[in-house]
Amino acid sequence: MTVAADLGAATYGAVVPSMRERLLDAAQQVVESEGWSAITMSRIARLAGVSRQTVHNELGTKHALAQALALRELDRFLAVVRDRLREADDIVSGVRAACRGALELGERSVLVRTIVTSVHSEQDGDLLAILTTESGEIVEAASAVVKAELVDQFSPLPFADAELDVAVEVVVRLVLSSITRPSKPAREAADEVAWMLGLAIAGREASGSAVAAPGSGA
What we know:
Layout: H1 3-11, H2 19-34, H3 41-48, H4 52-59, H5 62-87, H6 91-108, H7 110-117, H8 125-131, H9 136-154, H10 161-180, H11 186-207
């Protein structure tokens, strides 16, 4: 079955996706089956049955397409993180479960695995860069969601607001690094992140006062 046929079968009898989602679906299927270097705006247009100009109007540049695919995949990861945090009784066990869930999803995600195992070339670099050297937008979006969930689920927290910002960003960056450069099983990596968070909490509670967070100017 062709990619175009797959897209038609996937949407038959379901809510019709927006034009942007249709284009992202087409792009993702090409990336997962052939790699990022196979992506062209003309090919996406042909698969989605629209004009090349429509693709450019909806998605912009190829780099913007890479960002859109990465952010859409991030939504899947954050859904797992939210669920795991909401099921936990305390912040450390919640972060452990959330990290493990995200790491295990990273192992199963065809898009992520395609990105991180692709041959590193100029043609293939956009998607990998967005998860590594240009990961700022991913980290910022994920950190905002994780922080909000921690505040909602586990207040009062043992950190001042600036400290919490730093702690959350460190956790997010560690998990993202483990997803893109896995070196150990998800359970072990998640246990290590939770262990470090537990040490930070113990140190914070023992000190009895806020410690100036890096970059806070305090």
